[in-house]
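ingest -> validate -> predict -> emit
validate: passed (alphabet ok, no gaps, 279 aa)
predict: started
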Amino acid sequence: MRGAWRAGGSTRPSRGRLSALRACREALASRPAGLVTDIDGTISPIVQNPAAAAVLPGCRDALAVLARRLDLVAVLTGREPDVARRMVGLEGVEYLGTHGMVRWTPDGLMVHPDAAPFAERISQALPSLLEQLKSTDASIEDKGLVLAIHFRQSTSLEGTRDTIIAGVSKVAKAHGLAVMEGRKVVELRPPLHLGKGWSLADLARERQLASLVYLGDDRTDIPAFETIRQWRASEPGRQGVALAVASGEMAPELADLADYTLADVPAVESLLRNLAREA
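emit:
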């Protein structure tokens, strides 16, 4: 196992009118340099059916170039890491899934030892969850360590969300689990410190990075944005940039923590292409 799997506030630096592209370019000039991105809503547009989502070709092409030129390019997502790897389809990229609790390796999936025991508890909670949500038109995705309840396709979004939150909270309390909400999805997960923030900090330590850029769009990315602030403030000379991808569902807290906000997924594609030309 590479790196020590262990638990990982500062104000953002004053950037004036510095553009997101220039800020990323200047940060990544400090080596070793890393770029880490979410998938859905960041390099892949949000769609009604999560199984139909696809990474924009320009994002994939740019990440392929950056993976050859930077010291680290990684994908950090709520999806399972083998699913993430199929979606992105690139060698030379690190894939961390289930919000960082599971990592893809050439020898198979590596589950964080603190999270592994919760797989059985999650499995035991599934029948109760199905019972609680039987009156809704939500769909349940079993990710092993997480049960994700998707309701983007619901005919009554607000009513369905309220029913899901109530039902999932009841099941979580009964089974000693936690609840996390994202963009039209609610997750039942282990009650651990592990998540995108911890995983991002662990990657930075493992690769001894001097600079780090993170891109995300969802409430689940907030811990990663917080990590960027804490990490760059913890040692002189560290460069970190947190980029939020805007949407009508964007959490205000994410916008507050971001150094820059990109308009949408095509704007991410443009940024990555420009970085790839200059990396």
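The two ends are 30 Å apart (CA to CA).
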